[in-house]
Amino acid sequence: MAAPRQTVFRPLDPAFLEDPYPIYARLREQHPVAWGATQAVGYAGFWFISRYADVAAGLKDNRFGREIAKVMSPDSFPPIPEAHKPLYAMLSDWMLFKDPPEHARLRRIAAPVFSLRAVLGMRPRIDALIDAALARIPERGTYDIVSDFSSPLSIDIVADLMGVPEKDHPLVRGWVREITLSLDLVRTPERIAAGSRRASELIAYFERLVAAHRKVPQDNLLSLLISAHDGGTFLNEHELLASCVLFLFAGHEASSLLIGNGLRALASHPEQWRRLCAGEASAKSAVSELLRYDSPQQIAFRHALEDVTFQGAAIRKGQTVGFGLGSANRDPSVFPDADVLDLQRQENRHLAFGAGMHTCAGSSLANLEAELVFTALAKRFPELRVESHQRQESILVRGLTQLTLRCDR
Question: Which residue, 351, 306, 293, 360, is CA-closest to 324?
């Protein structure tokens, strides 16, 4: 199948990595359904949708789905290298990559765990973990608020809910990071192989943890998953273990990236930080605006399950479509002064957590965690003074690996 002749979107360009928003603006104006190209394995060419209305509609359109193998013949795909198979085997059991009816079956497990009521019940434990993390921030000098605070805190929270012993939290963080790189547009065959090794290790780790929980059940998410499996209703053994890994991702990535992105944005807009510190903007509205302004997830991929004409573009069955969440959240037709950070923004129907059946299952947890963290940091840092930052090498998600703040009160 011949790709469209004109490639107008190149997400691996260095300028896009640092600041994608001017490029999104051009695409919304000139190429709302654009052909993009990368050298990434599995993402050589894809359609990119940039306008809010189209992104929102496309994510709810059942002509676009995740299980491309259901509509394409096996010989349409290149063989999977042996070193990559453990990763793909795990992903095949994630509800993120399922369409109905399997998606609904697996989603039933996540729904009660990440419901608002359940998440609010977690608040005392989340508060305690935040307090412990705050206590490690020095009184003077500099501090990397991403690698030493938000990233470990987010993993600690969800790992704690999963029954992962505290001594193993650093190990889990490293595994999750390598798997993340193996899924992004920056992936290479070597990164996919590394992610595959980590997937095998993480699955084996949870096999041991599940066995221990079966002997001594606990009041946590892992015991709930085990109950769903052992009751014979929702999960087989492979899905149980894969879901353990998925919930680590769903429960931490958005939270961690949001905190880093948000603090950097607020450091560049000191008047907005002062509003938050003074209580003029609520933590809830601040988090919503920060999600819109610099979304942790930038692109949500789907596949055309049939030939589709979408906003005038002929999208063929099997082609990949990237729905631009980050672009949609800066669409001025929906958000007045879309490039302005306004923590008191009244109408904020952002798409940072997606839309439709694949809306992020961990959104309630991410929102609560971020609200508590920003409230706490507003008390600790009357001023945000950034010494340096380093951007994460990723395209589908946007975040920082390092954000060094001056701690002096």
Answer: 351
Q: Please give the model's pTM, rounded to 2 decimal places.
A: 0.91
Q: Considering all CA atoms of the chain, what is the largest pairwise distance in Å, rounded to the nearest integer?
A: 63
Residue spans of the domains in the chain: they are 14-406
Q: Judge whether 307 and 315 are in contact, CB under 8 Å.
A: yes
CA 1/CA 319 separation, integer angstroms: 10
As beta bridge partners, residue 309 has: 314
Q: Which amino acid makes up residue 362?
A: G
Which residue(s) pair with 168 in the sheet?
Answer: none
Q: Which two tokens stand for residue 394?
A: 């990723």
Q: Which two tokens stand for residue 299?
A: 């692109």
The dihedral through the CA atoms of 222, 228, 231, 236 has a sign that is negative
Residue 254: closest CA among 294, 285, 296, 298: 296
Say whether domain 14-406 belongs to CATH 3.40.50.10320.
no
Task: Tell me if 323 sits within 8 A of 304, measured CB to CB.
Answer: no
Q: How do strand 308-310 and strand 313-315 relate by DSSP bridges?
A: antiparallel
Q: 360 with 354: CB under 8 angstroms?
A: yes
Paired tokens of 367:
């929102």
Q: How far apart are CA 396 and CA 45, in angstroms?
A: 15
The predicted-structure confidence for 309-354, as pLDDT tens digits, reads as follows 999 999 999 999 999 999 999 999 999 999 999 999 988 999 999 9
The C-alpha atoms of residue 177 and residue 338 are separated, in whole angstroms, by: 31
> Cα–Cα distance between 248 and 250 in angstroms, integer?
6
CA nearest to 161, candidates 209, 104, 233, 91: 209
